[in-house]
Amino acid sequence: MKSPPLFFFLPSLFFVFLLLVPVRSTSSIVFTTLGRSLYGFDIFSTPTSPSTHQTELQLTDGISVNYNGFFPSSPSSVLSLINHSSSSSHTDQLDALVYVTERSGYSTIYLDLYSSSYSPSNRRATLELPTRLHFSLLSPADGRPSVSMKDRPSLSGDRLVFVSTHQPSQSPRQSWAAVYSTHLPSGSTIRLTPHGIADYSPAVSPSGQWTALLPPRGWTGEVQELNTDIYIFKTIDGSARTLVIEHGGWPCWADDSTIYFHRRSSDGWWSVYRAAISTHGNAPLLISLDRITPPGFHAFTPAVSAAAPELIAVATRRSSSQFRHIELLDLRDGKNDYVEVTRVISPKTHHFNPFFSPDASRIGYHRCRGSRNSGNPPLLLESITSLSPEKFSLFRIDGSFPSFSPDGRQIAYVNLPGLYVVNSDGSNPRELYNGNAFGTAWDWKRKGVIYTSDGPDFAVESAEVDVISITLSEDDDRAEPYIKKLTTGGKNNAFPSPSPDGKWVVFRSGRSGHKNLYVMDAVEGESEGIYQLTEGSWSDTMCNWSPDGEWIAFASDRHNPGGGSFSIYMIHPNGTGLRRVVHSGDGGRTNHPWFSPDSASLVFTSDYAGVSAEPISNPHHYQPYGEIFTVKIDGSDIKRLTHNSFEDGTPTWSPFFLEPSDVAETLRGVAHCRFDDCHWLSVPGRINNVLTGTGC
Question: Quick one: pLDDT at residue 23?
Fold first, then answer.
């Protein structure tokens, strides 16, 4: 083994240079969200009475992602709650829809009011109707977003009941999800969930007196079922909180003494159950419990209306279809009949989370709107509103492992298979390499040089993976780039990151039989010099060299080798000063660190904030709890940047500020509905053993 290069022991001149240059007060963070740009959800409705020609109405306007709807009982009274004077004298002819939308760059709750005087047979979308009104139900505090909604909102009387993740939990890997209630006339908001507890999927009883919700028993990384129980408390203040049903999710009320919910049964099938409860004493009490959907197919996320309490809407996965569909279970007069709702309309589209109109004449749900429907196309770079007070822009990219060129004009990213470069305004995306590349980093000194790894990702130590450099033509961006292999012999050489002086590259390699960190010559590769930086029977990976040259950050399971848990560590390039920066609790994942431009902080992805919503209520995600965070390099001041139920990952941090208004390039030729349902629902009746990091 060669000795470490001399520069490892010298003070960093680059750091001195940074001290002489004024530090910009703004910067940009770009990250990926697994498959998110391909969803394009909108809310639709269809009559509950079956007909020969079943029709469907698009209720939301195709802007961003719209999901988890709710029909208020009195649209005209909603106008008075939000202090709005309608210009229309026909408020009795309005329909209302409350739903979650991400159009503001973060999850918020909207109310739409639109004319009910349409003909269901002409398939017109409500967005085409001139009387449409459009409101955000919760105003930002001090001009900044202060909440982030998940799950399903409910409007009960003059109160909006919803889930928010804006308040941190008290420990790592404990969900931030909690139930809140906002008095709409005054805007006053109270927290109904006790501190130190997480709650999901609230449902308000028809009288408005009671709310049922789901605290988990304790989360240890589950991505299929969260081991939740059903509690009931008083909606007005959260008092009389009582455990009523063990093992249940997604509750809904038929009346104040009947709750429907789903659970995975002992035979492996997700099924819907009915609970009879008493709410007349000092605390709610379970009277009886019945399974109402039989084995043989999956049924979940039930909905019911007080107007027709024996008409149950469920989402199903049957062996005859690869898609999630909405069906009606008719229990009236002991019939126990199933009526298909969505399969006859859109047989090859997933449909999610049904809900009834107040009179039970219509059923609503959300699905991918598809390219044929109206609405905005997905963006290559989508601006996200961060809840952090820091001055930087935050963008989601339709790709993985993004990195900025030193001049900030270009972004390299991976869209497996293949490595691409795009201008930082989202224009002119082009493929540079068609191999299975992962991880990208630009050389600090040599213009147009990008480092990446070529070979299978998430592979064993002996896999054929090598570090390569890709050099772009300075004169013609259409010219073929020059590709050079920097490592030899395979052995899983990956995640290259160059030193700021342009002389060295740190990378991960499995050549010793374990994944550890090595440093090699940046131009010629390991043939001109290599040094093993870390050594041990664990996995050190996902390394990033700080802009001041002083540190290398990386993810490692050295605290529990092979246990599947990763933390973020830092080490000096000469092998000294090893210390752990962030740990997401036992079994937690904290990965993909990237230094801030001033080397004082790290951005990373983690399950530090647990799960934000019931996984089964969402489409397939490999890790429905990955969010983007920042932390000071001493491990202090952890801040959460993203709030959603998708997997966010592979962040990068640039000293250049991207104006959201300057980034508007859309994805072209993309099928908006290219995603799967939960993989563990694909094999009927069998509980799949899901690999670490995979699931819904």
Answer: 40
User: Is the residue at 486 inside a domain?
Assistant: yes
Alpha-carbon 175 to chain mean position: 14
The reported pLDDT for the residue numbered 195 is 93
Q: Are 62 and 190 members of one domain?
A: yes
Q: Which residue, among 45, 149, 150, 41, has the nearest Cα to 97 in the 3D structure?
A: 45
241 with 124, same domain: the answer is yes
Q: What is the pLDDT of residue 24?
A: 42
Q: How far apart are CA 261 and CA 271, in angstroms?
A: 8
pLDDT at 693: 32
Instruction: Answer for the pair 624, 618: CB distance below 8 angstroms, yes or no.
Output: yes
The contacts found for 469-477 with CB under 8 angstroms, 24 or more apart, are: 469/443, 470/419, 470/432, 470/433, 471/446, 472/421, 472/432, 472/448, 473/448, 474/447, 474/448, 477/428, 477/430
Q: CA–CA separation, 534 vs 508, rounded Å?
A: 10
pLDDT value for 413: 96
CATH classification at residue 518: 2.120.10.30
The secondary structure element, H or E, covering residue 76 is helix 75-81
Give the CA angle between residues 344, 346, 347 to the nearest 5°. Answer: 70
Q: What is the number of residues in the chain?
A: 696
Rounded to whole angstroms, the Cα distance separating 252 from 263 reads: 13
Q: Do the beta carbons of residue 154 and residue 70 sit within 8 Å?
A: yes
Which percentage of the chain shows pLDDT scores above 70? Answer: 84
3-state secondary structure labels for all residues of 570-582? EECCCCCCCEEEE
For 158, counting Cβ atoms within 10 Å of its Cβ (0-12 exposed, 13-18 middle, 19+ buried), the class is middle
d(CA 245, CA 247): 6
Radius of gyration, alpha carbons of the chain: 27
Query: Domain range holding 212?
Result: 36-368
**Quick one: which H or E segment has residue 17?**
helix 13-20
CA distances (Å), origin 524, targets 5, 234, 245, 258: 15, 69, 65, 71
- Same domain, yes or no, for 322 and 439? no
**In 351-426, which ranges are E strands?**
351-356, 362-368, 381-384, 392-397, 400-404, 410-414, 419-423
What is the tens place of the pLDDT at every residue in 17-36?
A: 333 333 445 899 999 988 77
> Within 13 Å of residue 467, how many CA atoms lie on the same side as its CB?
31
- Helix, strand, coil shares of the chain, percent, nearest 5, are 5, 40, 50
Distances 383 to 132, 538, 556, 589 between C-alpha atoms, Å: 26, 37, 31, 26
- Regarding whether 397 and 282 lie in a shared domain, the answer is no
| Residues 6+ away with beta carbon under 8 Å from 70 | 97, 98, 99, 152, 153, 154, 155, 355
Distance, in Å, from the CA atom of 396 to the CA atom of 647, rounded to the nearest integer, reads 12
pLDDT of residue 694: 32
567-571 vs 552-556, strand pairing mode: antiparallel
Report the pLDDT value the prediction gives residue 275, as an integer from 0 to 100: 98
CA 404 to chain centre: 23
Torsion of CA 311, 315, 321, 323, to 10 degrees: 140
Residue 148, classed as helix, strand or coil, is coil
Domain end, chosen from 311, 339, 368, is at 368
Burial class from Cβ neighbours inside 10 Å (0-12, 13-18, 19+) for residue 659 reads exposed
User: Edge to edge, what strands does the sheet with 178-183 contain?
Assistant: 149-156, 159-164, 178-183, 188-191
pLDDT < 50 stretches in the chain: 1-24, 86-89, 120-124, 372-374, 684-696
Q: What is the pLDDT of residue 13?
A: 33
For the residues of 109-125, what is the DSSP string, one character each? Answer: EEEEEEES---GGG---
Determine the pLDDT at residue 658: 86
For the stretch 291-338, pLDDT in tens is 999 999 999 999 999 999 999 999 999 999 989 999 999 998 888 899
